[in-house]
Every structure is written in C-alpha cells, then in structure tokens.
Design brief:
CATH class: Alpha Beta
Helix content: 10-25%
Shape: globular
CATH architecture: 3-Layer(bba) Sandwich
Number of strands: 6
CATH topology: FAD/NAD(P)-binding domain
Order of helices and strands: EHEHEEEE
Strand content: 35-45%
Strand order of the largest sheet: 1-2-3
Largest sheet: 3 strands, parallel
Length: 106
Amino acid sequence: MSTAPRLLLLSTEFPPGPGGIGMHAYQLARHLAARGWSVTVATPQAYVSADACAEFNRRQPFAVVTLPERDSSFTLFCFASFTNDTSHGLIFLFLKSGSQISACGS
C-alpha cells in the first residue's frame, strides 16, 4: 500500500475551461502531484468540448474525473471523515441526478 498522501480535490471549474478558481485548483493539483501526492480532481470542466477535456486530462500527472455540468437535477454531496492521523481517511462522493444516486469512496 502506498504511503503517499492522497487528495480528492473538488472544483466548480478546471482547465482547459476558463476561470481563476479552476487555475488555482490546477496549480495546486499539479504541484502536489510533483511532490509525490496521489491527487484526483473531480470537476465539471464546462465551456469546452469533450475532446479538449479528454486531451487535457490525458496529459496530467494526476487523475481527473469529469462530472456532469451542474443543473437543477444534479447535486454533489461530499462527506469526509478522518482519523486523528490525517493521512488516513474516508471520503464519499454522492452524485444525485434525478432519482439516480451514485456513491464512490476512497
């Protein structure tokens, strides 16, 4: 089992689309991955084509999970639970779209 710190980064925007918050999240993910962290980014990646997103994501040194764009039928819930040793924890994402609920844990 890897001892590298793990990070799940949630962002409302992310490159290759525009936005300052997205660029900040990108730089954080990029620099932490360069320092040996295991980083996964979960984000909608709006305002660009699916092909542009796929090409951008493929070039990154970390995983990017493209979430559906936000609308009135989509809600993202995040629950994080950590032990006293913050290098171990449990993060659950619940994606609710209409009557469908998906969950993933790390």
